[in-house]
Design a protein that fits this description.
The structure holds two protein chains of two kinds. Chain A is built from 20 helices and two strands. Chain A is mainly α. Among the domains of chain A are: 134-206, no CATH class; 240-361, no CATH class; 367-405. Mean pLDDT of chain A is 82; it is low at 15-27. Chain A has helices at residues 3-22, 43-55, 59-67, 75-85, 92-101, 107-117, 134-153, 158-172, 174-178, 180-189, 195-206, 216-227, 240-243, 252-259, 262-279, 302-322, 333-342, 348-361, 367-385, 391-405; strands spanning 285-288, 296-299. Chain A has a two-stranded antiparallel ribbon with strand order 1-2. Chain B is of the alpha+beta class. Chain B has three domains: 14-164, no CATH class; 171-239; 267-395, no CATH class. Chain B has helices at residues 2-13, 72-92, 96-100, 163-166, 171-204, 208-230, 232-239, 252-263, 275-289, 329-341, 346-354, 363-378, 382-395; strands at 18-27, 33-43, 54-58, 104-108, 114-115, 119-120, 132-135, 152-155, 161-162, 243-244, 293-294, 307-308. The chains are: A mainly alpha, B alpha+beta. The A-B interface holds A 276, 279-280, 301-303, 306-307, 347, 349-350, 353-354, 356-357, 359-360, 380, 383-384, 386-389, 391-392, 394-396, 398-399, 403, 407-411, 414-417 and B 179, 182-183, 186-187, 190-191, 193-194, 197-198, 214-215, 217-218, 220-221, 225, 312-314, 317, 364-365, 368-369, 372, 381, 383-384, 386-388, 390-391, 393-395, 397-398.
């Protein structure tokens, strides 16, 4: 046997041992990432939490629900177990906040658990009047038999089982998901699934679990993978990705983990590593090769270097978005920054400066510019309405306000720069 | 006996440095000129401004100005502020070059042009006024009895001259002219819109007389505006400052500026002015003076507008030209870099930049590169701070 076949397993063994040994953040709860302040905890919840801490008897057992080393973390299972352990099963909301305050879960886990806890059923559309074919029913039953078996063996979380079922049925024939209620009833009637499996699946259907961005077990798997790639600075935390988000309902962290797989997050993080490496370059030059004379080397100025580095970044973003690895998802710059922070490629201190880079290729209108737009619009209108010859007063007023408000303008693409 | 002999020689060699009190010109808390008595240290002479580090002389003379000379107030002021500037570079910047500098001769009231070979240009050549300069050391010209000389600082005499003879235009005048140009164009456009509006609504409503009256007023307004615009240059000339005067030796910031040139001369030679070395001299002068403004509010000795860091100028390629070496663009840029962007490093960071530059360095390439390099050494978080620098330069139109 060649030497390399002996050395390779040894190397892999050593590497994994090293990774585990240096994975300091891995010591934290599997459902917690040190993400800074929670967007769910506020002053009002503090008093409830104080009361909860004082009165709840089974705190140790409740903690174990999310800290015990399990194969899968199942949101519904955790909620059901908590209800059994709590003094008052109506205290699930406070229990979830308690977990967040104690840093046993982070905001992303908390959001999934809250969805699982929710008893509010979303208004379901009345299924359309469509007829299922024999083939459809046969496909569905085959899949439901597998679900029944897995549920009995308790191999997977209920929500994962349901989502797998839903997406595979949709792939087979969309009618099966539109008529899922009837399919489940028929399967129960024909004894393909038992009553308990029916209850579980129907509850998931009513709670529209297929619309969750991800399940708790998926998140636990992603975070476990990501944690292995983190830097070992456990004090590193920043509120930006928790408090800010693409919309008010979701933070950048939540969005990242719901949209991208762990390998996609790794790929995105690589772009920032490349960016940082290039920013520290000593010099960048353009080489012009001739066949019949000496090559020409044009050394770029520092700002030309900076701009070409940003252009390369944008090109890499576009290439990544086009690649099959990303599944056709368009990658935004903020997603890349979020991924890089999650992977520990950038520090909390660097976030603001890196986020501000986008302003260079995608400048936003400042409040002053927006204000000037309206002032000029109304000013021009009032100039017409003012009786002659007082129109100049309006012009004068606009000019004075403009001079006070406006920042000096940059000249785009001045001739003294190549890039 | 032998010991006594050596002791007497030693005492003679270790001539005590005396500290005497003189009235000098200072700045008060509001940055206005004020006269105060201060102690001048390191003086080696008992009766003249000849010290351990500076010798203040008059014009081409090599004799230090006497304490009872008519220029003693000016000499004391220069001596005091030069000492302050030297202390800044020794104590704050920890400059090894300044520590090793030989005694500097400082010439007051010298109007001769500097000559690299002969030290002083011929008396018949045109004189220079209202200025100051730092002079590099020279080897002399023994054949013509020109002795070698060390680095010197020259302060020109002040002389009232007409602004138009200086051949420069005030940047504020250009700004006002440009604003007036915009105002005139906008007023004409507004009057034209108003005319169309009246034409459509008043004529349709049958108010012909009102329409004609309005048109007459609009035309009147446009004519007056045009008249004001066309005569604006003459009006500006009539109302603006006509006389320029600068007694450079009586303006503390100019003294600091010239000393800064000497202090930085190990890297930025004194052979010629450039926007970069003038900008650095301005920056350190302002740091020594604790002010964002140079040479303003000292009207008794100064009738020029000074330099202000607040000038929010965007970079233009012509700022690289030697002719514009004394504009305040680089000064404002360095102030922003040193104070606004890099509060934790400021002076060390800016001084670090000078280690990478020389008098031929330009702004766009060399100055920016030096700041990025200096940041690697002096910034607390180099990666992050370099990013901030890039963004700042981008905003400044580089």
């Amino acid at each position: 046997m060649s030497m390399k076949y002996i050395l390779l397993p040894i190397f892999l063994l050593l590497f994994s041992t090293y990774t585990l040994a240096t994975d300091k953040r891995g010591e934290l709860s599997p459902l917690f990432y040190n993400e800074g302040e929670s967007r769910y905890l506020n002053e009002l919840s503090r008093s409830d939490l104080d009361y909860f801490n004082k009165t709840e008897k089974n705190l140790d057992q409740l903690d174990l629900l999310v800290t015990q080393n399990k194969k899968n973390f199942c949101a519904y299972q955790i909620i059901n177990s908590a209800k059994n352990l709590l003094n008052d099963h109506n205290n699930v909301d406070i229990f979830l906040l308690y977990l967040r305050e104690k840093k046993l879960v982070d905001d992303v886990s908390l959001q999934i658990l809250t969805k699982a806890k929710s008893n509010t059923l979303i208004n379901l559309k009345i299924p359309p009047d469509e007829s299922l074919t024999e083939e459809n029913i046969s496909d569905a039953f085959l899949r439901l038999t597998e679900v029944q078996s897995k549920r009995v063996q308790n191999l997977e979380c209920q929500e994962d089982l349901y989502r797998d079922l839903y997406f595979s049925l949709r792939q087979k024939a969309p009618i099966l998901t539109r008529q899922l209620k009837n399919v489940l009833k028929l399967a129960l009637k024909k004894h393909v699934i038992d009553q308990e499996t029916y209850n579980v699946l129907d509850r998931m259907r009513k709670n529209r679990v297929q619309e969750w961005p991800m399940t708790l077990s998926e998140y636990a798997r992603k975070i476990s993978y990501i944690k292995k790639n983190l830097s070992d600075d456990e004090n590193e935390k920043n509120n930006f990705f928790v408090t800010e988000g693409p919309n008010k309902q979701i933070s950048y962290r939540q969005y990242l983990y719901s949209q991208y797989s762990e390998s996609q997050i790794l790929l995105m993080g690589q772009l920032t590593l490349n960016l940082k490496k290039r920013l520290s370059a000593e010099s960048i030059s353009i080489n012009i090769h001739y066949s019949d004379r000496e090559d020409e080397v044009i050394l770029l100025s520092p700002m030309e270097q900076f701009r070409i580095i940003l252009k390369i970044l944008r090109k890499e973003m576009s290439d990544l978005g086009q690649s099959d690895l990303m599944g056709g998802k368009k990658v935004s710059y903020l997603d890349i920054i979020t991924a890089s922070y999650e992977l520990g490629h950038i520090s909390g201190e660097e976030i603001k400066s890196l986020v501000a880079l986008e302003e260079i290729w995608n400048p936003k209108r400042t409040k002053k510019e927006k204000a000037m737009f309206w002032i000029k619009t109304f000013g021009s209108f009032s100039a017409v309405l003012l009786p002659p010859p007082y129109g100049f007063l309006s012009v004068l007023a606009i000019m004075i306000i403009d001079q006070q408000l406006s920042d000096p303008k940059r000249t785009e693409d001045p001739d003294f720069n190549i890039i | 006996m032998k010991a006594l002999y050596f002791l007497s020689i030693l005492i003679f060699c270790l001539k005590p440095l005396s500290a005497k009190t003189f009235e000098v010109l200072l700045r008060d808390d509001q940055f206005r000129p004020t006269k105060e008595f201060v102690e001048l240290n390191d003086l080696e002479s008992e009766d003249s401004f000849d010290g351990k580090y500076f010798k203040i002389v008059l014009s081409k003379s090599n004799e230090a100005i006497k304490f009872d000379d008519e220029y003693s107030f000016k000499a004391a002021t220069v001596y005091y502020h030069l000492t302050k500037a030297r202390n800044y570079f020794i104590e704050r910047i920890k400059s090894e070059h300044v520590k090793k500098l030989e005694k500097i001769t400082v010439r007051l009231e010298i109007s001769h042009v500097f000559n690299e070979v002969g030290h002083f240009a011929h008396d018949n050549l045109a004189k220079e006024y209202n200025n100051a300069l730092s002079v590099p050391s020279g080897k002399g010209f023994p054949a013509k009895n020109v002795a070698p000389w060390g680095p010197e600082i020259w302060f020109r005499p002040s002389l009232e001259v007409h602004v138009r003879d200086l051949g420069f235009s005030d940047s504020n005048d250009q700004l006002i002219k440009s604003s007036l140009h915009d105002f005139r164009n906008q007023t004409h456009l507004s009057n034209f819109r108003n005319f169309l509006f009246q034409l459509i609504f008043s004529v349709n409503a049958g108010q012909t007389e009102y329409f004609l009256n309005s048109v007459f007023r609009l035309v009147q307004s446009s004519v007056i505006m045009e008249f004001l615009y066309q005569t604006s240059d003459e009006a500006a000339q009539f109302f603006s400052r006509k006389i320029y005067k600068l007694d450079s030796a009586m303006v503390p910031e100019i003294i600091y500026h010239e000393y800064s040139h000497i202090a930085l001369s190990d890297k930025m030679e004194l052979t010629h002015s450039s926007p970069v070395n003038e900008g650095f001299a301005d920056y350190f002068a302002s740091k020594i003076a604790h002010s964002k403004e140079l040479a303003t509010h000292i009207n008794e000795y100064n009738l020029f507008s000074g330099k202000k860091v607040k000038n929010k100028l965007m970079y233009r390629a012509e700022f690289e030209r030697q002719k514009l070496a004394n504009t305040d663009f680089v000064f404002g840029l360095l102030w922003s870099l040193g104070n606004d962007l890099k509060k934790d490093a400021d002076d060390d960071f800016v001084f670090g930049m000078t280690r990478e530059l020389n008098s031929s360095s330009n702004i766009r390439d060399d100055l920016i590169r030096s700041s990025l390099k200096s940041c690697t050494q002096f910034c607390l978080d180099p990666m992050n701070d370099r990013l901030k620098l890039f963004q700042f330069y981008h905003r400044k139109n580089f």
